[in-house]
Structure formats: C-alpha cells, structure tokens
Write a structure and sequence with these properties.
Blueprint (H helix, E strand, L loop, with lengths): L2 H34 L2 H27 L14 H29 L8 H28 L2 H30 L4 H28 L5 H12 L6 E9 L5 E10 L4 H19 L2 E9 L6 H15 L4 E8 L6 E7 L8 H16 L4 E7 L7
Parallel strand pairs: 2-3, 5-6
Antiparallel strand pairs: 1-2, 4-5
Helix pairs in contact: 1-2, 1-4, 2-3, 2-5, 2-6, 3-6, 4-5, 5-6, 7-8, 9-10
Length: about 375
Amino acid sequence: MDKRESRGRQAECVSAIAVAVNLMLFAAKWTAGRRTGSMSVVADAYNNLSDAGTAAVGLLGFALAGRPADREHPYGHARYEYLAALIVSAGQLTVAIGLIYDSVLRIVRPRPVEWAGGVTLLLAVAVSVKLLLAALDLVAGRRLASGTLKAAALDSLSDAGATSAVLLGGYCMRRFGLQLDGWLGLAIGLLILAGAVSLCRETISSLLGRIPSKEETDAIRDCILAGQGVLGVHDLQVHDYGPGHRFASAHVELPAALTSLESHEVLDGIEDRVQEQTGISLVLHCDPVLTEDENLPAVRSALEETAAEMDSRITLHDIRIVPGNGADQVRFDCVIPYGMKLSGQEAQERFNRGVRQRTGRDYRCLPLVEHSFTGDA
C-alpha cells in the first residue's frame, strides 16, 4: 500500500467515525428537542445532522479521490475531495436557511419549553463528544494534510460552542425565566451559515487554482537553490490536482559554460530531491547565464535600481545581454505585483532611460512584463 492509498484509508476511517457519532447525536437531540419543545435543541440536532452529511460526503470524496489515474484522467481523481466539500457546503447552506427561518418564527411567536434535567445531561455529554471528535479530526487533518478533516475539526469545535450556548439558554430559562430559545436557534443557524459560506469560498478557490502556501514554495526553492551550480530560480508554478496530487515547474539559471549533459544531470538531481522531500512532481527548464560577460553585473545593478524606483516589489530575472546591430539588447523578465498597471512599452522606456543614466551606454532593454504564480508580489 503506497502513501496515497494509506492516506485515503485513514481519512475514510476518521470520516466514518464522524458520520456515526453525529447521527447518534442528532437522534438523541432531536428526540429531546421535540419532547421539550425547545427550538434551540432541535436546531442543534440539525446541526449534527448537517455534520453527519458533511462527513458522509467527505467519506465518499475520499473514496472517489483514491481511484488511480487512468487514460482520461492522467492526474488522478483527487479533486473529488474538493467537489465533495462543495456539495457539503451547499447542503449546509440549505440547513442554515431553514433553521434561521424557523427560529425567527419562534422569536415572533414564542412557545413554552419544558426543560428537563435529562436534556442538560444529554447536551453536556454531547459537548464532550464533539470536543473529542474535533481533536481526532484535527490530529488526522494535520498528519494527512487534509483540508477537509481540518474543516471538520473547526466545525466540531463550533458545534461544541453552539451546544454550550443551548445549555446556557436552558439555565437562563430555569433560573431567570428568560425565553432565549428562538434567539439561540437563530445564533446556531447563523453559525452554520457562516461555516458553509467559508467552506464554499475555500473550495471554489481551490478548484479555480489558488496560490500555493509560502512554506511549500520556499521548500521547493530551497531544494532547487541547493543544486550544484544553480544561480537562481524563477517562474515557479505549482498546480493542484487535489491532496497528494501536486505538480510544479520552474526555470533554473545555470552557467552557460556547462554542457547540456551536465545541466541535465543537475536538473534531474533537483527533480528527484524535490519529489522525495515534498512529494511534488517537478519539471525544470534550464536558463543558461553568461557569467563571463563583464558588462552584465553593471547592467543588472542598473536594472534593479530602476525597478526599485518604480516599485520595490518588482523583481527581475533571466537577465542576459544579446549583441546586436548598433545597440546591444538586454533581455529579461520583469515580474510586477498584481494591480500595478505597467505596459511593456512603458517598462521598456523607463528601463532604457534608467540603464543609460547609470551605465552611460545605450542599451536596448526588452523586458517581458509578467505576474508571479506564487503570490510573491
């Protein structure tokens, strides 16, 4: 059994436990809420039913995501986890809206609630169970790097808080005669709604393709820069096809004096090291750098100073001087921050002027303006 299959089996086991626990809590709370007429207890019961649905869809998602790659899906099926989370969030939205509606009606037309000591004991046990379940989901989520399980842990913590609020409402009713039942039901409904909206946004962001974490990109860059003779790395892109199915590509600057075979050996070693240390399949492209060009350091310094005048977040890479008829060409990539409006023509004029002022030579700058794929700027 490989790491991906083992991860899937463990995640399925945790999700199955969550389904069983939440169904039992739903049945107990729903029965108690109906018998006492407490809207907040019924709302809390449906909160557990929503959690059971979340865990069930997550269980299905893990099972489908574990299917091996095939001819039509060479990158595997791990994105089923994201689709499962999207379905879960839609179900939670429906439950939340229904609870909010019923709670508002209870606020407008309050009904007497028969609170019993058995209900108090039941809810106290439920809080303890949800805290244990949250701990299980959190530990498993961190170990398996599963956003679905981490979200389930936060959901269980919020459930424990919601049930504690229901307990407080029961105490206030018995001790002071305050009718907070409808208001507590409304609070729980809004809590479910907020969690559903957050989960929906996170899932859609993953499906659209969001930037990787800084820790992940730093780990990849560190592996690349540790390669023998590597001068720099840029144009790093990380593609997410679901948990455990991540691919990346990057451009690596190597001395032009190396032979193609030597460069290939360096890049192969880096790709193997990244795969071993991060689990990411990496493909590298070699950018040869003429380290013997005596004019390059002065030109690089002039370009960087000019870029800093425009915006300190601008970065430059792949700088090279290409001899030409008349003025020599300076070709390079210019990475600008999102939101900054800088056309290629404007960038060329400003770099031409800046390099001319700082070096005293009439170079023709040809910048390629682009954005970062890792959120660096």
